[in-house]
Design a protein that fits this description.
The complex is a heterodimer of chains A (354) and B (244). Chain A is an alpha/beta fold and 354 residues long. Chain A has two domains: 25-134, abc type-2 transporter like fold, CATH 3.40.1710; 154-349, no CATH class. Chain A is built from 13 helices and six strands. In chain A, helix 2 (38-49) links the parallel strand 1 and strand 2 (53-59). Chain A is elongated, with a radius of gyration of 27 Å. With 244 residues, chain B is α/β, with parallel strands linked by helices. Chain B has one domain (34-55, 80-243): Rossmann fold, CATH 3.40.50. Chain B has nine helices and ten strands. Chain B is globular. The two termini of chain B are 36 Å apart. The model of chain B has no long low-confidence stretch (mean pLDDT 92). The chains are: A alpha/beta (354), B alpha/beta (244). Chain A binds chain B through residues 189-191, 193-200, 352-354, and chain B through 53-57, 74-76, 78-79, 81, 83, 85, 87-92, 103, 106-108. Bound molecules: adenosine-5'-triphosphate (ATP) and magnesium ion (MG). Magnesium ion binds next to helix 1 of chain B. Adenosine-5'-triphosphate binds at residues 16, 19, 21, 39, 41-47, 86 of chain B. Chain A: Its main location: membrane. Chain A: Keywords: Cell membrane, Membrane, Transmembrane, Transmembrane helix, Transport. Chain A: Belongs to the ABC-2 integral membrane protein family. Chain A: The chain crosses the membrane at residues 161-184, 205-228, 240-261, 273-292, 331-350.
């Protein structure tokens, strides 16, 4: 059991961090060049040079291009209109049309980001060229090529962002499941009843039961941080003691939830079911996979009750931004508060007689 | 046997929803006696016992066990009693020695006391070679003797045994009852449930529970006279039949 306990999580850490990175590669790129100018060729060559795009087709008409997209043969169509270069030079403004196959919405969003980045850099270059042309007029062209665009994180950062988050999940899942299962298992086999007829104090039993899992959580954190540093080369900019301080309190919250779950269930199946229920909500609302800012308002309110949210926030802040204690006092005090509430509830609901 | 009460039960009841598992029972147990708590399957023996050992709250009624009230002083009751559950409940994945150390520790025995108790228990049971074996690997009869001995580690005033000999062979049963006698001899009160009527004959007094109520409470000898039969088996059958 012990090897499984350690090996599996780290296989997960390795696989998930690679799989859950949001990089999209080998995007099948096609274009319709109606301008056939120096500028249009220059723009296309920028896509050619990118690692993310494979240029698969050069369509003559929009109709044909759309047909191929419907068939699923291309992911992106860039349409460069007639007089692209001329409009650039005379009006200092022009339009591009980009169609993205959004069957996979997440991938489409990321493709959009890549495209925007390339067009933006093209933008910048043209702008400086135009600026030279119009040196005398002192006109500051704002945006020459307008396309709908939104800004994202630098895509190359995903792994850095994901590894600490996945480490949070591992620490949480293992401590939650093991603690909840462990106590319910004792109910099933009857040893809990035997313990309950002894004069042992509630807090003695609970501390004795949960302490090993608390230590285990910290051990997993340690090995995880080592892997993050050594395998993924994730920077740890902040004070590592801060991460441990936070985790040691955070684990109390998680173990308290485990104890609560086991108090209200009779079998390991029930406990597993309830633990998963919480886990799935906690994970989805942690800000790990979906940024909290992009959630609807009510969902953002719910995340305030999610301990994982604070752990993700803090581990990222400390590891990636080098946050100090004063930066994290707010989430830290919230987690201390939860630790007190949850454990009071858990101790209260643990009954030696019913 | 003294006439000093060590268990005094008054109008004790336990309901699960609308179902009355224990229905208004009252009885006393005297210090040092072997008290047989008989009844058919589902009669409510285990339920009643759990109230007496402080792990189940009575719906109504009261019980004083070893001078403490189970309603208000359950934890004090627990200090003074031992309990062997109907279901074997030691840690299968710990060795004999570890189980003894663990339960001794919970009852607040010192390291030295645990050492002494372990040595004594092991030699009494003849388990010298099994000390470091996992409890899960022991045959059922040995497991039961072991849990009886562990229930006695802290030298309780009363020990509650819930079907301690269920499923073991006649020889082991006989040995088990010898252990019970030896313990009763030291002055420990024994509260035992069983389905074996020959075992009922070994008790000082027995109560017979039928559908949550105590229908008879006497010494086996008096019961047999009263029902004009020659064995406890017949007493039991007569009582169960009367109620049907
Ligand atoms: N937690 C519970 N919830 C609901 N009903 C229960 C509960 N515990 C016991 N019962 C019911 O109460 C009745 C008495 O059960 P109990 O275990 O006390 O019987 P018993 O005399 O010990 O039987 P056995 O000889 O089979 O051990 C049974 O009908 C049982 O189903
Ligand atoms: Mg029973």
């Amino acid at each position: 059991m012990l090897p499984i306990l350690f090996v599996l999580p780290f296989v997960q850490l390795l696989i998930l961090s690679n799989a859950a990175s949001f990089e999209v590669k080998n995007i099948r790129f096609s274009y319709i060049d109606q301008d056939h100018s120096k500028a249009s060729r220059e723009l296309i060559s920028k896509f050619q040079a990118s690692d993310y795009f494979n240029i698969v087709e050069n369509f003559a008409s929009k109709k044909e291009a759309n047909l191929q997209m419907q068939k699923g043969k291309v992911d992106v169509i860039l349409e460069i209109p007639n007089h692209f270069e001329r409009n650039l030079l005379t009006d200092k403004k022009t339009n591009l049309s980009v169609s993205i196959n959004a069957i996979d919405g997440a991938a489409a969003g990321i493709e959009n980001v890549y495209i925007s980045q390339i067009i933006n850099s093209f933008n910048q270059k043209i702008r400086s060229q135009l600026y030279q042309y119009n040196d005398a007029s002192y006109i500051q062209p704002q945006s020459i090529i307008s396309i709908p665009s939104f800004w994202y994180n630098n895509t190359l950062n995903y792994k850095t962002l994901m590894v600490p988050g996945i480490l949070v999940l591992l620490v949480t899942m293992i401590s939650l499941f093991l603690s909840a299962m462990n106590i319910v298992r004792e109910k099933e086999i009857g040893t809990l009843e035997q313990i309950n007829v002894t004069p042992i104090r509630k807090h003695q039993f609970i501390i004795g039961k949960l302490f090993p899992f608390w230590v285990l959580g910290l051990v997993i954190l340690t090995v995880g941080l080592l892997i993050a540093k050594l395998v993924f080369n994730i920077p740890i900019l902040g004070n590592i003691g801060l991460i441990y301080l936070f985790t040691s309190i955070y684990l109390l919250v998680v173990l308290g939830i485990g104890l609560l779950v086991s108090n209200y269930t009779e079998t390991q199946q029930q406990a597993m079911f309830i633990a998963w229920f919480f886990m799935v909500i906690f994970i989805l609302m942690s800000g790990l996979f979906t940024p909290i800012e992009s959630m609807p308002d009510w969902a953002q309110q719910i995340t305030l009750f999610n301990p994982i949210r604070y752990f993700v926030e803090i581990i990222r802040m400390v590891m990636l931004k080098g946050a100090t204690f004063s930066d994290i006092t707010k989430p830290f005090s919230i987690i201390v508060f939860y630790a007190i509430i949850i454990n009071s509830l858990a101790v209260w609901s643990y009954k030696k007689n019913n | 046997m003294s006439q000093e009460k060590i268990i005094a039960v008054k109008n004790l009841s336990k309901k699960f929803g609308n179902f009355i598992a224990v229905n208004d029972i009252s009885f006393d147990v005297y210090k040092g006696e072997i008290f047989g708590f008989l009844g058919a399957n589902g009669a409510g023996k285990t339920t009643a016992m759990k109230m007496l050992i402080g792990i189940s709250k009575p719906t109504s009624g009261e019980a004083v066990v070893a001078d403490f009230d189970v309603n208000f002083q359950a934890e004090m009751v627990k200090k003074n009693i031992g309990y062997m559950s109907q279901k074997f409940s030691m840690y299968d994945d710990l060795t004999i020695k570890e189980n003894i150390t663990f339960f001794g520790g919970i009852y607040g025995l010192s390291r030295n006391q645990i050492k002494e108790k372990t040595a004594q228990l092991i030699s009494d049971l003849g388990l010298e070679n099994e000390l470091n074996k996992l409890v899960g690997d022991l045959p059922l009869g040995w497991k039961q003797k072991l849990s009886f001995s562990v229930a006695l580690l802290h030298e309780p005033k009363i020990v509650f045994l819930d079907e301690p000999t269920g499923g073991v062979d006649p020889i082991t049963r006989r040995q088990f009852w010898e252990m019970i006698y030896a313990e009763a001899h030291k002055g420990t009160t024994i509260f035992v449930t069983t389905h074996y009527m020959d075992e009922a004959e070994y008790c000082d007094r027995v109560s017979i529970m039928v559908e949550g109520k105590i229908e008879a409470l006497e010494s086996p000898k008096n019961l047999k006279q009263q029902y004009k039969v020659t064995s406890m088996n017949e007493v039991f059958l007569k009582l169960a039949r009367n109620v049907e």
